[in-house]
Amino acid sequence: MAKGTITRKAPAKLSAANSESSHDIFIKGAREHNLRNIDVVIPRNKFTVVTGVSGSGKSSLTIDTLFAEGQRRYAESLSAYARQFVARMSKPDVDYINNLCPAIAIEQKVVTRTPRSTVGSLTEIYDYLRLLYARIGKTISPVSGREVKKDDVSDVVNYINGLSDGDKVLLIIPFKTSYQRGVGEELNILMQKGFSRLLIDGKIVHIEDLLDARGLEKQFNSNEVFILIDRFRVKRFDEDDNHRIADSVGTAFYEGMGALWLLINDEAKVHFSNRFELDGIVFEEPVPNLFSFNNPYGACPVCEGFSQVLGIDPDLVIPDRQLSVFEGAIAPWKGEKLGKWKEKLVRNAHYFDFPVHKPVADLSDAEYQLLWTGNKWFEGINEFFEEVERNLYKIQYRVLLSRYRGRTLCTSCHGYRLRKEALYVKVGGRHIGELSEMPVKHLLRWFTELLLSESEKQIARRILMELQTRLQVLCDVGLGYLTLNRVANTLSGGESQRIQLTRSLGSNLTDSLYVLDEPSIGLHPRDTENLIEVLKKLKALGNTLVVVEHDEMMMRMADHIIDMGPLASHLGGKVVAEGNYKEICSNDKSLTGKYLTGELKIDVPGQRRKWNRAIKVEGARQNNLKNIDVTFPLNTLTVVTGVSGSGKTTLVKQILYAGLKALKGEPVDKPGIHKRI
Fold first, then answer.
1. Looking at the structure, do residues 181 and 223 belong to the same domain, yes or no?
2. How much is the pTM?
């Protein structure tokens, strides 16, 4: 360099050397598992991707070092009393970590195995639904279809004030006698309370006159008798008049055990009740616990909130629906003795035009239901099993019954998990069980179009905002196809992780560290874009994101990338490259960069393996599958792909896998609905 030449220094890059004085997270001497005493800087409030070959130390750095130290520090900050309830956490093998903020790990694992946990409870959406129904839900009588309302004193006073001037109003309650006291004794008690008149068969009678009359018991048994609480002539009532009416109404509610009548002009009789009842039914008032299947108060008393009971499994009774009744579709109706049940149906089918030669799969709903219920010409399947249960003292009948028992839908709650009183409560014409069955994307649209009164909007404003926010995030992370009643232990690891991400966004935490383990795995590129937008929202709240990821789209959107390597196990554990996307691509040491630029690539085979045998699935219609036929070639690698919610897992896991195991007689959950494999 020539003497006197002045050189301009390049901007300082993010490195371990200058990080200790910054606000970025600095990891010094990480040696957990196969990490090679590395120093790493993770920028605060940024989106950082940690990538590299499998086994290079990505999870050791992010989960076992960064997150573990964050959790340990949180536990250490608790009081000695609180720490006894927290599992002891060992310090990760690291010299120190500076500027570490509270850490939350969202891993790819199913967070719960209990059948009581659902998508709705995991995301807290169902909790807000319970609150919504408790606040603005309308209880509808199953008898008349009218809304059940609880009247109070002001309702009665307002009704009287709304009558025409000059109308005569009698405020009355039913006269009831106690089995321990006679009519005369009851009348004396009424006089002691200050009541002086009764209404008997439409006529006002003084109680004093009745006490001297003969045949009192007979007169009261043969006529409709009411106690006259007060009487009014409708006019423009002043404040004192309304106070008097309110006092009388309050007395009537108390003495009438919550019920009273207004007799208007000796003709019309209007009923009011401060009890929650209608059509002779006392209903439960809506409270959040009424809609909780995890609470004994709200759970269905038959299935106890599980939605299923141990009963007769239709799929075991009719295992092959392509057979007709004549061909022996009903499995237990076989043999010399039990076959007589089938013979009776076949012999009498012409009396009610039942198609005994039509496959069960092609029967109408009414015809299929008739197989179970029977009629006067034959006993159905239900009656057959009732007969079996009456003979359970015989060993052969106990064995027979055990063959056809399985987990079936609860006939009391129809799978909604709740007691019937909870399903009488409606919002927008739907009960909470119906909303739980709707896919999230449809439920979000339903809430957007929900029409409410101004008072209901005011009451439910915050609840609706929280519901729509959480539903929108579920759609954004590619889970719009899930239903709220989907059991948590049926979710994949990726689905479970994205649900946890939804909870994090709903909590609005700030200045926290989120560690995510491959959130894009199993996602279609269309859904990955939506996931990136969700992560950006999380970062915009002031959080730091550290994501273990291999997806190119995710790396392009990252603020910072850490490439671990160079290889796996003891040949890995080092940071081979770091920087933004362009810097990783231009780094000669980065194996990831070489694949991103196309310098290295996986060659596509020029010749495909031929096949001549295959497994064919016919009539798959579980969940959202549209009665499809699919062929899976044998001795080849078959890939099933598509956007989230298109039915991939349903086809492969619930139908193909479960169906093949069932055909082999191996224990497995009930396969998804299909014709045959």
1. yes
2. 0.75
